[in-house]
Amino acid sequence: MERISTHQFMILGAAVLMGTTFFPVAAMVTGVGGRDGWMSILPGYAAGIPYGLMVLSLVERYPHKNLLQISETLFGKWIGKIIGILYILITGYFGGLLLGQIGDVFQSSIMPITPISLFYLGGLLLIFYLVSSGIEVFARFSEAIFPIIVIALVLNAGLAIPRIEQGELLPILSEGFKPLFWGGVKVLPFAMEYILFLAGILTFLPTSKQELGQLKTGVWRAVFLVGILDTMVALIQILVFGPTETIRLVYGLLVLGKMVELSRTVSGVESIFLGVWLGAGVIKSGAFFFTSTWGLETVFGLKGLKWNLALGVVFMGIALGFTRSINLVMEISLVDNYLILPFTSVWILTLWGVSRWKKGAGVQ
Amino acid sequence: MKRTNIGLALILILCSLLLTGCWGKREVEELAPLIAIGFDLGQKPGTYLITKQFVSPKKGESTNVTDVDRTFSVEVSSPREAYEKMSKLLNLIPFRGSLKVIVIGEDVAKAGFLDLLDLEQRFGEFRRMTYLVLTKGKAQSILTMKMRAGTLPGMYIKDNLETGGTVSTFPLVRLGHYLTVLSRKSTAPIIPLVKSVKPGDEGIEYKAGGKDGGEELQLEGAGVFRGDRLVDFLTDKETKGYMWLDNDIEQRSISTVDIEESKVNFVGQVLKSTTKYKVPDQDGTIGIQYQIEASVAVEEVTGQKEQLSVTEWADLMKGAEGSFAKAIQKECELSIKKERELSLDFLGIGRHIEQKNPAYWKTVKDQWEQKIADFPVSLNVQVKIDTSGMSSSSATTN
Predict the structure, then answer these.
(1) Is B60 left (phi over 0), alpha (psi -120 to 50) or beta?
(2) Is there a contact between B178 and B230 (Cβ–Cβ < 8 Å)?
(3) The pLDDT of residue B146 is above 90
(4) Strand ranges (DSSP E) for chain B?
(5) In this prediction, what percent of chain B has a pLDDT beyond 90?
(6) Which domains are delineated in chain A?
(7) Which of A100, A163, B226, B391 would you label with B368, given CA atoms 20 to 30 Å apart?
(8) If contacts are CB pairs under 8 Å, which of residues 161-180 in chain A contact chain B?
(9) What pLDDT sits at residue B397?
């Protein structure tokens, strides 16, 4: 059985949690929270920490089992299977949509004439290679790519500082705290996506007491790192574009990249950033490819190259079904808000509650 | 392991073959970079006269664009249609990512031009860094002008705008900035004004070059908009006042001539300026209070006929600080007066109030344009003379 280290768990978790959230996050939180929306990102992500800790607490009791297997143990075979099927459907569908987002980002920003299916195919080939190589390679890929993503984000935000408009951040909290709550709710599905991945990766985690403590710290670190980075991304967009324009721009970070000029001579650096964003998209979509394969294996016992290929075809089909940019953006938002958020929050909470109750009652 | 490596190699080969962007590839030699667009109203109702200026760098020359004749005007119903028509005229592929300047003609500015900008802010090839300028008369006549130096008008405007910080007499408005200001609702956007200057205009003399003459362009003044519709023009002095109040001064020259009746006058270079504001509540009356602090280097002292001692020179410089402050105040007051006359908040006072006193702003924002006319505005200008140059007195005739 493959294992990943606690450090790999932290970096992989952060990479999956971040994914391509830096593209929509500013418009999402500003849409509901106005110019204060950026403040809701970190609390929104932080709300995922208790869920992460709940999942890890189940590892202590049921080592080397993923949450689908634990669900079968705690809820019984059939309810467990139903949960497993839902898990496969949601993660598979969402992973396909994220593959579509890879193509959409490239086509709408720098390569409008290249057929979108080629971006899907390119992304899928990388994902397929990573999935075939196993979780350890996927974790190492994240260890290599994630720092570059972070550097690119910080550079993009830093180089946009000369474009900041006067006073766009003010007034602060003029509408009170209520908009922040709604902003946090918008971010919560991102944390739940991470929890879905966590639910499947449990079997690959070390289970000693010391390492469990490190895993819990890893959850904290990943959440805060990504929360701070996304906050920075939203903040710089509000500062440069103002809140109304931030909401209006579909991929504000790409527009920001296009505004970077170095000494009035170097521009067009957004293409470099886009290369990095491809890595982020591949990690996120790849993570959901993994979750789907874990689900298929746990629920139906289906595994191997044949089923991975079939899943790849499904991913490609989903992406091709959403070649209209606006439809894709809407669909991702719908899946996030109305499938991933309710399913994950209810499932994990119930599972953890039942586990605690059974432990208290002495039931195995 | 070997199988994995082969797999990796195959995937990399496939990726490099499939993701090269060959579908959209355009060789540099095949491109005609677009540097300026001009928008005017067309003769037929519902049409626009769109002028586009392309450059064709000559092979072997690393700098200076020499082909001036690649400027076309077409009458169309949309900018996208203009692209198609111009593609038929050009033997190269128009490349729009290089657009530097958009010149808005007076007629289209009065009718509203936001729809014309939609392509520039929507299509991924364009950048929000493009400059916007306004002109009295036709944008076409600006972009088809023959410049004395042989420069293309589009490049000239861009270069002039980018060096504008050394005089700080007109605002620098990029497409992104305009859209952000537009989204604030309460603030009226302003756009700098470009005009052609013929020999003899406004006391400017120059020798027109070549057989075809050749003219010069000047950036001076600005236009005030309600949304995307031009309402009025600001004079040079009013624009300078805006620059002070908007905290946009990098460096500029300031003179005390005509400020007060004095035999001695000063001309100085503003080295640094900061404008801050407060929104104080004085006995229930909310107003805005500007605080301008400027550091000046005195560069000319005229009318000083007597040799002064060091102490007397120090007193004279102290007096000069007050005179410079009055000169700055006068420009600001002209700008505030214009804002009140127009009942349009191009100074962004509404946004300042919203920033400092959001609760009060909520009570006035719906009637803001009516409120501007008599909204209390006060100024406090402080000038500090950092240096008076290499001489502590003036040369005298005695």
Answers:
(1) left
(2) no
(3) no
(4) 31-41, 48-54, 71-76, 93-95, 101-104, 131-135, 190-197, 216-226, 229-234, 252-255, 265-278, 281-282, 285-286, 288-302, 377-387
(5) 55
(6) 6-349 (1.20.1740.10)
(7) A163
(8) 163, 165-168, 170-171, 174
(9) 59
The structure tokens 């624009």 sit at B239
Q: Phi and psi (nearest 5°) for B298? A: -75, 125
* Residue type for position B100: K
| A141 and chain B in contact, CB less than 8 A | no
What percent of chain A has a predicted confidence (pLDDT) above 90? 74
Four-CA torsion B225, B230, B232, B234, nearest 10 degrees: 60
Is B24's CB within 8 Å of A113's CB?
Answer: yes
What are the boundaries of each domain within chain B? 25-234, 238-398
In whole angstroms, what is the distance from residue A88 CA to residue A299 CA?
A: 9
Pair of tokens at residue B229 = 């519709």
DSSP string, B220-234: EEEEEEETTEEEEEE
CA distance B92 to chain A (A): 18
Q: Answer yes or no: is pLDDT of A324 > 90.
A: no
- Among the ranges given (A70-79, A104-113, B224-233), the one the predictor scored with the smallest mean pLDDT: A104-113
CATH number of B238-398: 3.30.300.210
Give the pLDDT confidence score for residue B209 in this predicted structure: 60
Name every chain A residue with its beta carbon within 8 A of the beta carbon of B11. 125-126, 128-129
* Residue B64 CB neighbour total at 10 angstroms: 10
Question: Do strands B48-54 and B71-76 pair parallel, antiparallel, or not at all (unpaired)?
Answer: antiparallel
Strand pairing of B229-234 and B101-104? Answer: unpaired
CA distances (Å), B293 to each of A217, B328, B370, in order? 51, 10, 30
Q: Whose CA is closest to B35, among B191, B157, B123, B124?
A: B157
Q: How many CB atoms lie within 10 A of CB A26?
A: 29
pLDDT, tens digit, 9 for 90 and up, residues A246-284: 999 888 888 888 888 777 677 777 777 788 888 999 999
Nearest CA in chain A to B22: A114
B178: nearest CA partner in chain A: A241
Check A114 against B24: CB less than 8 A apart: yes
| pLDDT tens figures, B31-82 | 888 999 999 999 999 999 999 998 876 655 555 545 556 889 999 998 888 8
Q: Measured between CB atoms, does A245 come within 8 Å of chain B?
A: yes
pLDDT category, A215, cuts 50, 70, 90? very high
Q: A114-118, A275-279, B147-151, B390-394: which has the minimum mean pLDDT? A: B390-394
Q: In the prediction, which pLDDT does B4 show?
A: 64
* Cβ pair A171:B356 closer than 8 A: yes
Cα angle: A142, vertex A103, A330; to 5 degrees: 100
Report helix, strand or coil for A308.
Answer: helix
State chain B's mean pLDDT as an integer: 87
Q: Give the type of residue at B54.
A: F
Burial of B119 (0-12, 13-18, 19+ CB in 10 A): middle
Which residues of chain B have a CB within 8 Å of the CB of A240?
176, 180
Q: What is the pLDDT of residue B83?
A: 85
Distance CA B118, CA B101 (A): 15
Structure tokens at A31: 């849409």
CA B41: distance to chain centroid?
A: 23
Task: Give the number of residues written for chain A.
Answer: 364
| Complex ipTM tops 0.90 | no
According to the model, what pLDDT value does residue A79 have? 95
Q: For the stretch A217-239, what's the b/e string if a residue is b when 16 or more beta carbons lie within 10 angstroms of its beta carbon? A: ebbeebbebbbebbbbbbbbbbb
d(CA A82, CA A74): 13
Do B49 and B42 contact (CB within 8 A), yes or no?
yes
* 8 Å CB contact of A242 and B24: no
Say if CB B55 and CB B35 are below 8 A apart: yes
